[in-house]
Here is the input.
Amino acid sequence: MPIAKGIAEAMTSPQASAIRKMFEEGIALKKKYGEDAVCDFSLGNPDLEPPPEVDRAIRAQASLVQKGKHGYMPNPGYRDTRVAMAEKASLEQGVAVPPDNIVMTCGAAAALSCVFKAILEPQGEVIVPAPCFPDYYHYAANHGGRLIPVPARADFSLDVDAVQKALSPKTCAVLINSPNNPSGKIYTTGELAALAGALTEHGNRPGNRVPYLVADEPYRDIVYDGREVPALFGLYGETLTATSFAKNLSIPGERIGYIAVNPAASQGAQVAAACAFAARILGFVNAPAFFQRVVAAAWKCRPDFSSYRTRRDALMSALDGAGITYAVPEGAFYLFCKVPPRTQPGDSSDGAFCEHLRANLVLCAPGSSFFCPGWFRMAYCVPEKTIDTARDALKRAVERW
Amino acid sequence: MPIAKGIAEAMTSPQASAIRKMFEEGIALKKKYGEDAVCDFSLGNPDLEPPPEVDRAIRAQASLVQKGKHGYMPNPGYRDTRVAMAEKASLEQGVAVPPDNIVMTCGAAAALSCVFKAILEPQGEVIVPAPCFPDYYHYAANHGGRLIPVPARADFSLDVDAVQKALSPKTCAVLINSPNNPSGKIYTTGELAALAGALTEHGNRPGNRVPYLVADEPYRDIVYDGREVPALFGLYGETLTATSFAKNLSIPGERIGYIAVNPAASQGAQVAAACAFAARILGFVNAPAFFQRVVAAAWKCRPDFSSYRTRRDALMSALDGAGITYAVPEGAFYLFCKVPPRTQPGDSSDGAFCEHLRANLVLCAPGSSFFCPGWFRMAYCVPEKTIDTARDALKRAVERW
Here is the structure.
């Protein structure tokens, strides 16, 4: 029997994600041409190893003798872990976040999935500044919602006017991701305060819901040039953050993250309960027990992110050499680049350019997947020698484009 | 802002699950009255520790030095793990299952969630023999489907005629769970062959889909009195199994399981791809990396399940002593019991009886949650002293009922 029509359509949409396809094709290309010949910038798979504290916490957990340590716990997670995450969220947000406002999840993707299950009414709209992570589309659509990408300003800063214009009686949430994947942009406190004002004003008008502000924050700690990611809880009551340790601790395959509900939210206890219930009925049940304990022990440590800065600069120099323009990333580990004008006859789209790059053994993700045609994304969480190899390959590719 | 109406309703439905509520109230009651005073039969949280091979595999993984071992891998999981699970599925099903037909998941609940996302058309019906696990309701409803519980026979064996009558042009799948939670029933090859015949016949009629047979098999290895759980892949082509190591290896909190697609399925490769895609877009992304490696190393071992048999018999004797009748479990670790006739004035429902038991510090789950009013479930994966303590408590409770 065939699969369901809906998923068959989703699997062939631009948001089916060329990223994963590139990642998987990259594995095949590396087998064929050798690991060193292929420059894989496709996936945000941190190549930094977790810091030694994570290894130590893993070994400590592995030798811990404690009955039931791999068993079920209440859906929102272990109390100790939630206490630790509440401390982390309080530090980041500058307000005291109680442990009851934390729901442990199988990563940030799971966190968003649970949040949207908890808050989206049928046909409810989720406004998101574009470019943005492609799977946001599905995270909203899975629960009957609809993602409304709204272009950011030309420099990828938050276009509050555009968001405001997109608000409607169907708006359930505004989703932001700062530092942004793929642009690397960090929204400023000023922009966020203006956004909060717009949401409050909208919510006060009869017939509208007060929108939730949902912040996807896995890159919060990866910032450059002394920048900081602003706190949100003080700016807007109905705020939920979703995050993970995928990038912070370089453990994306372990699927561990959490939701934090602003203590100022008008129905925070109910929202947290609904998120935990969503985690159960969506089949997550709970975040993996072992890594709940690991992050409770090791959440304060960080890998040395300075190499991301080094690589960012190296890749920017390679792009300069190839004549490719880009947005200078303020955080995260992606370079969002403009597809150069095509000089040869043929398709000049970002998809075609990424195919062209692939023929030159450079794997990137097309901007269309991020709701931003004409651009492409390079994930630079890769070894420096990959960037070195890409230097000539990018130049050659642009010359032949 | 309030949560979505849909989830608010789901949270107050009978399938919101009295089980988890009881589990969480149990934690509170134990704090109040002491661990030993409360007889908690609420949750299928195995009290057997994982076998030593699992501990060894965890320690080996903890000291393994391998770059990227906590990183992303392709959504369906590590190749090595899929090869191991394919070997397991082949042994169980008696046909050669290729690794490409395995999708690693965050447990069996996740496996079912991904399967339903992959195969359910809007309003698509999932027929399931009742009693059954309450959350099946949500696993179907989350993806626009509808669970159709069809009562099993009086002895909880499969009522193929009843299933056949429930089949409709909207039927997308028949879901079975054998050994059954809560009844402990194992469906026989004869019953399953008759079911396969009915599904084939239905699928051959114009206007109907060929239904998928989805088998939720986390209890496959927990059987009594020399029984075996029959293979399914040889009986019916369009079969998918969902399973986990929650009960097999006593690691339910770690969220590790898989989907196996019958190699005889007409569009098996597409189904496996859709399940992996569903895992991605639902926010699971992949099964936890660490435990993927652990189960690849330790899948052949088992805890000593003989104590489940001992406890089953002890609890049956306690129930006999209290005058409560039940179905003798052939597998799994639940006793499904009939609510005794009420001799005092008042509500005589299974919900009221479970409240009455709770007042006597015995925690059980009402049958209504399992689509089977008039019954209640006792999970006997608990220490033997809990069963000893329950002996008097049950007797006392029935006398006062």
